[in-house]
Design a protein that fits this description.
It is a single chain. This protein is α/β, with parallel strands linked by helices. It has 15 helices and 15 strands. α5 runs antiparallel to α6. The longest helix is centred in the last third of the chain and has 19 residues. It is globular and about 70 Å long. The structure holds flavin-adenine dinucleotide (FAD) and iron/sulfur cluster (SF4). The site of flavin-adenine dinucleotide has 37 residues, from α7, β2, α8, α11 and α12.
Length: 434
């Protein structure tokens, strides 16, 4: 597995939610009411038995606590850091109804899972060999979750990924104040520790290995190739230097160095979570003037309110109700020309104005990669997403899908849930149970 360079620009960021000490963890765990029919479990896409793992921390059984988490979510270590718990488990904790601070479930989960990594507890062994083999396309959260569970059932697994780094967006996209790339790579090593997962990096499907070859060599296929490149805003001047997709930029500074010393005015276009991450990251990387340009109002932003609140506290400024229509500059971008939008989202005639910018990041979505499956008869797509049943089965026998390529772009925890559930269905298929 390829190692990451040590001098990555992401190194300047500090953890925004510092870890609990053992004493803090026990105090917080003892606040839990261990609710019957706990709403926090229902709010977790992987249905971790949250009261049970918290009770085990309270009684000093940290190893058992970690096991409870990993039984449902094999990426429990990274999910403890990157999950938007404010809108999932923590947001549904009963304490919210009482006006009392909710249980810090993410921090408790981090306490247990970090302890497991430090102690070297791996918990799981590969099942007895079934002689069956599964191809997994994509080494992101969905692909890792399906691979690990399939190994527990005893099926051989080969993961193909076009990149040289493992972990998908968990490594290349997640904000470094939540988790740095090397922590994600450590997690992949921990998952692969079960043994018998053959990792083929730098291999694109169907470019380097065709669908026909994949189906010939394996008994089932799981598609977990995520989303494609950043979408572009086609406008005059779009090919000037200094204009880049936000996800591509984030990958660049997470995996290596970036020189932003000449940047005076950075602009991020968009109002979703990637836009919010990008503005916070530019501020953290030392850019003096960072502005977000969003065509709607604050109430219409698709990014999470808690993330936006944190961005504002860090000094990020925003231009509301502005739509870029052109980029200015000769060779390199110097400004973005915007038109003001009215409350009905219509451009206001004559309202064009320039916003100075020598770096422009586009955070207006990512392409869907549905066209990759054009050669796989029976696998259908809708708006570029792979269409499946509830277990992830596509319309082609032996082919499943999960994660962003199926759900259109959600969270790490959704990819894990979909990968895990697809593994159960694939196992039933391979052993004649379905
Ligand atoms: C900037 C950003 C920040 C995010 N922050 C968070 C966060 O804080 N918390 C959170 O929960 N979620 C976050 N997400 C979302 C989360 O990262 C994704 O939902 C999750 O990674 C999806 O997992 P996946 O396995 O489906 O896809 P991915 O993680 O995208 O992995 C897909 C893998 O498939 C590989 N691949 C693609 N095409 C091919 C091909 N043709 N052949 C072979 N391999 C291929 C890719 O190289 C990649 O490794 C963020 C997303 C972005 C863009
Ligand atoms: S809802 Fe809150 S108090 Fe109840 S079990 Fe979950 S974390 Fe504990």
């Amino acid at each position: 597995m390829s190692k990451l360079p040590p001098d990555r620009a992401e190194g300047v960021f500090v953890d925004f939610k510092p870890a609990y000490t053992p004493a803090q963890a026990v105090v917080e765990a003892n606040r839990c009411l261990f609710c019957y029919d706990a709403p926090c479990i229902k709010a977790c896409p992987t249905s971790i038995d949250i009261p049970q793992f918290i009770r085990k921390i309270a009684t000093g059984n940290v190893e058992g606590s970690a096991r409870t988490i990993f039984d449902s979510n094999i990426l429990g270590m990274s999910c403890a850091r990157v999950c938007p718990v404010e809108v999932l488990c923590v947001g549904d904790c009963v304490y919210n109804e009482m006006g009392v601070p909710p249980i810090q479930i993410g921090k408790l989960q981090r306490y247990s899972t970090d302890a497991a990594y430090e102690a070297g507890w791996t918990f799981y062994e590969a099942g007895e060999s079934t002689g069956k083999s599964v191809a997994v396309v994509g080494a992101g959260p969905a692909g890792l979750a399906v691979a690990h569970r399939l190994r527990r059932f005893g099926h051989a697994v080969t993961i193909y990924d076009k990149r040289s780094v493992v972990g998908g967006l968990n490594t290349t996209g997640v904000a470094p104040y939540k988790m740095k790339a090397d922590r994600s790579v450590d997690e992949v090593e921990w998952v692969l520790g079960i043994g018998g997962i053959d990792l083929k990096l730098g291999v694109s499907v169907p470019g380097d290995v065709s669908w026909a070859e994949l189906e010939d060599q394996h008994d089932a296929v799981f598609l977990g190739f995520g989303l494609g490149p950043d979408s572009v805003l086609d406008a005059p001047g779009a090919d000037l230097d200094g204009i880049e997709g936000a996800v591509a930029f984030i990958e660049r500074f997470k995996l290596g160095g970036v020189d932003l010393s000449s940047i005076r005015n950075a602009v991020v276009i968009g109002g979703g979570n990637t836009a919010i991450d990008a503005v916070r990251e530019l501020v953290g990387l030392g850019v003096q003037n960072v502005k977000m340009i969003y065509r709607g109002t604050e109430s219409r932003m698709s990014g999470y309110a808690h993330e936006w609140k944190a961005a504002k506290q860090e000094g990020v400024r925003v231009v509301w109700q502005a739509q870029p229509v052109a980029y200015q500059g000769e060779g390199h971008v110097t400004a973005v020309t915007c038109v003001r939008m009215d409350d009905a989202k219509q451009p206001i005639p004559g309202s064009e104005h320039d916003i100075a910018a020598d770096l422009v990041l586009l955070a207006v979505g990512q392409a869907k990669l549905g066209e990759l499956v054009a050669g796989l008869d029976g696998v259908e797509t809708q708006w570029g997403r792979i269409v499946t049943d509830d277990d992830g089965a596509t319309g082609r026998a032996g082919v499943w899908a999960g994660g962003d390529c199926r759900n259109g772009g959600k969270e790490v925890v959704n990819g894990v849930a979909e990968g895990r559930d697809a593994a159960e269905a694939i196992h039933a298929y391979l052993t004649g149970g379905a």
